[in-house]
Amino acid sequence: MEFLRLDQLGKQFGGITACNNISFTAETGQIVGLIGPNGAGKTTVFNLITGVYKPSSGTISFAGQVISGCSPDDIVAKGIARTFQNIRLFRSLSALENVCIAVDRVAEYSLVQALLRLPKVLRSEAQTRRQAMEYLDALGLADKAELKAESLPYGLQRKLEIARALALKPQLLLLDEPAAGMNPEESVELAKLIRTVHDRYNLTTLLIEHHMDVVMQLCDKIVVLNFGQKLAEGAGGEIQTNPEVLKAYLGSGERSKRRARN
């Protein structure tokens, strides 16, 4: 079942075209990879989906509703969450507090009730901590709950961002280079964890990633962007052998083909 649709999506910044006529879909339960060279328009697509930017042209539909131009808050409320290429944690707060903030985003009590410390609020706070610990545990971070985010190794900060995104209870999860800065062993481990979380929470996932081993291991479908346009779309095997993709994204010649297979 079609869950996310981008239809002839375009975005201009003054005289610069960041995205032009991009169309693709994600089916319910799929992991879709979005790859391409730096500057290809991948993060711009994420920003358009999540309401950070408004499209200059085209439409975005999610779960049968057009969401083009909705505010970021509305996008979250509709069931879409994301992580960022540059980690955006509350560095001075603990791992648990970072996730609790996201859980509280969907809490069902008013500011007045919170200030009065009513029983409903106290019960909700206890439940918030339990839920936050569940998400930390899902990412292997339960034993780091009380540590400040800034004290965590880089790879664990990446996992904490994913835990915080999950706490928003999304149906569609957007991951922007989750394996950035990781070595090959760490990236393979993270790919397994993403698959586990994806299945456990019945997600549809859109993934930007430069680690091709992660992309090939995880993705049901891959969309390739280049210079703000869609260059190719297909399964991993098709993308690995597509001459235009090899030329634009991986370089040319036998060396690039070997890199694509690895």
From TrEMBL:
InterPro entries: AAA+_ATPase (IPR003593), ABC_AA/LPS_Transport (IPR051120), ABC_transporter-like_ATP-bd (IPR003439), BCA_ABC_TP_C (IPR032823), P-loop_NTPase (IPR027417). GO terms for cellular component: plasma membrane. Keywords: ATP-binding, Nucleotide-binding, Transport. Pfam families: ABC_tran, BCA_ABC_TP_C. One of its GO terms (biological process) is L-valine import across plasma membrane. Gene3D superfamilies: P-loop containing nucleotide triphosphate hydrolases. Residues 4-252 form the ABC transporter domain. One of its GO terms (molecular function) is L-isoleucine transmembrane transporter activity. This is High-affinity branched-chain amino acid ABC transporter ATP-binding protein LivG. It comes from Anaerosporomusa subterranea. The gene is livG.
